[in-house]
């Protein structure tokens, strides 16, 4: 016999297991909040901007061709900024206990499309260290690019500064808890339907009819505990008589 599930049955299952669904959702949100606030290390970000322009010796000859040439150089500069040649000097100047490879993972270099402005962003658990790394990386690059490519076309546009009350960029507890709520809700619904599917007990006359594939001829009404006790009392009284 083909088994069908109506929309009403689905809502009945959800209503029946609503406590379980809410409980799993609350547990997921609570665990996410505890991890976000207590276990995860806050990470701060600081950024500095450099400008790639024409060589300083040719400032008066600035034209569109120079801009196009500088834009083509930016991709190369993005690689050089994160290279060991630059980062090793940054580590040396700041006396950092890290390696160029590890420092590379903390730095992000990007630029807007058709823009000569390059942004150097640094993430670190210490906000002041993030500022120092960003500014030192920009300064070292500005100095070293003259030696590496024999050009002097980089200037510091906006140095990184330490905010009075810096806010971490990650983790985001509210976002993490919202995601955990969705996951907990989905998990709760899934567990509810799984329990309903695994529950093979016979609950009503429809279950008996489907199980035996026989028509129902009659029903026995449920007897409450009070009715049973009253019957026992009556039997006892009759025996005494």
UniProtKB/TrEMBL annotation:
Protein location: Cell membrane
A cellular component term, taken from the record's GO annotations: plasma membrane
Recorded topology in the membrane: Multi-pass membrane protein
InterPro entries: Bact_polysacc_biosynth/exp, GNVR, LPS_length_determ_N
Membrane-traversing stretches: 20-44, 174-195
Molecular function GO terms recorded: protein tyrosine kinase activity
Keyword Transmembrane helix set for record: yes
Domain Polysaccharide chain length determinant N-terminal: 3-94
Pfam family for this entry, one: Wzz
Keywords linked to the UniProt accession: Cell membrane, Membrane, Transmembrane, Transmembrane helix
Keyword Cell membrane: yes
Boundaries of every Tyrosine-protein kinase G-rich domain copy: 142-194
Domain of life: Bacteria
Similarity section: Belongs to the CpsC/CapA family.
Protein known as: Capsular polysaccharide biosynthesis protein
Organism: Psychrobacillus psychrotolerans
């Amino acid at each position: 016999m083909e088994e069908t599930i109506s929309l009403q049955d689905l809502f009945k299952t959800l209503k029946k297991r609503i406590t379980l669904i809410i409980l799993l959702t609350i547990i997921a949100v609570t665990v996410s909040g505890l991890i976000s606030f207590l276990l995860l290390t806050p990470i701060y970000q600081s950024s500095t901007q450099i400008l790639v322009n024409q060589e300083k010796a040719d400032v008066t000859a600035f034209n569109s061709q120079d801009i196009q040439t500088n834009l083509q150089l930016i991709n190369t500069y993005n690689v050089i900024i994160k290279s060991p040649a630059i980062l090793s000097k940054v580590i040396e100047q700041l006396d950092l206990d890290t390696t160029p490879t590890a420092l590379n993972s903390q730095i992000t270099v990007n630029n807007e499309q058709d823009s000569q402005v390059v942004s150097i962003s640094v993430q670190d658990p210490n906000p002041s260290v993030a500022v120092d790394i960003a500014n030192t990386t920009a300064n070292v690059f500005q100095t070293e690019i003259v030696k590496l490519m024999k050009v002097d076309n980089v200037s510091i546009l906006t140095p990184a500064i330490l905010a009075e009350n810096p806010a971490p960029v990650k983790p985001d507890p509210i976002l993490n808890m919202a995601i955990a709520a969705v996951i907990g809700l989905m998990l709760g619904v899934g567990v509810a339907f799984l329990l309903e599917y695994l529950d093979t007990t016979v609950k009503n006359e429809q279950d008996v009819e489907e199980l035996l594939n026989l028509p129902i001829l009659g029903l026995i009404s449920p007897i409450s505990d009070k009715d049973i006790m009253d019957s026992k009392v009556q039997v006892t009284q009759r025996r005494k008589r």
